[in-house]
Amino acid sequence: MKQQEHLPLASIWKLFKDQLRLLNFLSYFLLLGFGLALGVLASYSLIDSKSLISHVTQFCVSTPPSPQPLPPPPLVTPPIAQPLPGPLPLPPLLFTPPPAQPPPVPPLLYIPPPVQPPVLVAPFHDGIGTKVKPKAVKMMGDLELLQKASMLPRIQKLPYKEPPKVAFMFLTKGKLELAPLWEKFFKGHEGLYSIYVHTNPSYKGSLESEGSVFEGRRIHSKEVKWGGFSLIEAERRLLANAVLDVSNQRFVLLSESCIPLFNFSTVYSHLIGSTKTFVEVYDDRTSVGRGRYSRHMYPTIEVKQWRKGSQWFEIDRDLAIEVVTDNKYFPLFGRHCKGSCYADEHYLPTFVNIRFPWKNANRTLTWVDWTRGGPHPTKFLRPYMTKELLENLRNNGSTCEYNGGRTTICHLFARKFLPGTLNRLLKFAPKIMSFNP
Ligand SMILES: *[C@@H]1O[C@H](CO)[C@@H](O)[C@H](O)[C@H]1NC(C)=O
Ligand SMILES: *[C@@H]1O[C@H](CO)[C@@H](O)[C@H](O)[C@H]1NC(C)=O
Ligand SMILES: *[C@@H]1O[C@H](CO)[C@@H](O)[C@H](O)[C@H]1NC(C)=O
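# 2-acetamido-2-deoxy-beta-D-glucopyranose complex -> structure
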């Protein structure tokens, strides 16, 4: 009985509870739906503002990089805090697209896709015959220059059975004070070399005397800041000019403080005969190596691919063309290697390490003295320019790998030699370096 009495009450209670549960469930459901809708809306507006940001950065180089949604790569050393770009407007990057055209991707660099002309056209050629003084370099803006360079075929034969040439590319601030030494070096070897000079546009003085090997060899140049991205833009400008002459098979970057350590024939045959390119490449895991890597470069460049090395390179034609037409890594450096990143010490070593590790000797042929520490290498003044120094730089008893064997020639060039050393160099050159026999 008692149970019977209780039964209806209990069932009513149960029914009520069930309805309550349903109501609860429904309200949860509504809340969930509302939350979902809110989330979708929010993410849409986020995407919108992101794409807006990226559109803005496409046109304004100096805008700080937008945060990347990519997961940060494992860092061995934390990157050092980069100084803010500050209000200083950055110099315009190399090869910006013409304003009339729609913005191409990648935005910082406009390179038309490489076409492969079947035959080489004559206008690219610099000299006819071997003993003819080269014509002056054509002054070309970055865009025209790069369009021309990117049209060059990757593999080509030298026309007219001409000997290959070495392109000596001088990246200078102003006057080439050691030019008289270089004049002696080149004398009598016309047809085996080309010279290109990139000088800061602010330098208005003359570069050379009449009849000099440097006459008419100045290329269209732009302002260069020490350690900045403009430095590798200038290197690229030099390379782009030099690859236009199909006879150029080796490319050497030099500064105004560089000197040759051997005579022309030794330098020439060492470079032309080498199976390897000479770009210094090493992995520095400290703050002045991997610490300069920016995680915004991920995943195109990973921190374990990041390399360091001297700016002064000796490369072959294939690599030169690859550098000139690189529209993947170069613009990435333009965006993310600023301030204390020092693009000149990282761009080419990282590029070579990723793309051509097998063909590189990983060392430079340009000697420099870092033993005294600090951010700058030793500068040699007149008193230090001795016969012993020169002889020691040419051969100090150690050997280096060359085409599978060993050679006593580890360096072909050396820096940094100040103008005061010129007279002694001119005096020693004929005897020690057997210039002009
Ligand atoms: C260049 O120097 C080498 C020694 O380094 C010498 O054997 C050679 O005869 C020199 N060549 C010329 C053309 O002077
Ligand atoms: C240079 O380093 C690369 C790795 O970056 C390596 O594959 C190559 O064998 C090295 N070259 C020489 C000559 O040691
Ligand atoms: C020769 O010079 C190289 C670097 O230029 C150095 O690493 C090496 O220790 C030197 N060798 C001798 C025997 O002094």
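# post-check
The radius of gyration is 31 Å.
The longest strand covers residues 165-172.
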